[in-house]
Design a protein that fits this description.
Blueprint lengths: L20 H4 L4 H6 L4 H20 L4 H22 L17 H22 L4 H18 L4 H21 L1 H25 L16
Helix pairs in contact: 3-7
């Protein structure tokens, strides 16, 4: 009798993810940076944000002062570069070829419109569970904001953004196991809350539009 080999059961992916993490993050340059596929760009961005945080929080640089100093430094570099290009075999900077692509702004506007629509849908209370979870999350963020400056909080979020994806990719199976257990506990808690509290909240009658 042939012996059938048992394949190890795969744990469900976080958020029921079916695609690779690189594809979920967009599969482009941004995904390469977040997952440290392009180590030079990732390290450069982390170093740049760390320098900005150091200048504002540790050195306590004023934003306007720093901006003026940076612009003056750029102007001096361009002045020397432009005037020395005729004496030394340097190519002039092709600044007129530099343009911010229009799809970048279109993408930002689409994300902003999507955020406003989702915020409106949550605020109307169509999903009471999501409504109260959002209220609780905002309250927690407001409490955290009392202990951190805005720049410190943004820097912490940035560090999480560039470390959590790569850590999740390395320890995906362990995270999926813990997330599945936590998801079951949260669902059990929300079911209890929905049965004992949310279902007892009176709601007004839903008016249906009459077809003329």
């Amino acid at each position: 009798m042939p012996i059938r080999s048992r394949e190890p059961a795969q744990r469900p992916s976080l958020f029921d993810r079916q695609r690779p993490l690189h594809a979920v993050l967009g599969g482009g340059k941004l995904a390469d940076i977040l997952l440290w596929k392009d180590k030079v760009s990732s390290a450069t961005i982390v170093a740049g944000f760390s320098i900005i945080w150091f200048l504002f929080e540790v050195v306590e640089y004023n934003f306007l002062t720093l901006l003026c100093h940076v612009l003056m430094a750029i102007m001096l570099i361009l002045f020397v570069w432009y005037n020395a290009a005729g004496l030394i075999t340097w190519s002039l900077p092709q600044i007129y070829d530099f343009q911010i692509p229009e799809p970048t702004f279109r993408f930002l506007f689409q994300k902003l419109n999507s955020f406003l629509r989702n915020f409106y849908d949550i605020s109307t209370g169509k999903d009471l569970t999501l409504f109260f979870v959002t209220i609780a999350g905002l309250w927690i963020l407001s409490a955290i904001g009392n202990y951190f400056t805005t720049l410190n909080l943004l820097y912490i979020l940035f560090v999480c953004l560039v470390t959590i994806p790569i850590m999740y990719e390395r320890y995906e199976h362990e995270v999926n196991y813990l997330a599945s257990k936590g998801n079951q506990d949260v669902k059990r808690l929300f079911n209890t809350l929905d049965t004992k509290v949310l279902n007892k909240i009176p709601r007004g009658p839903v008016k249906q539009k009459k077809n003329k």
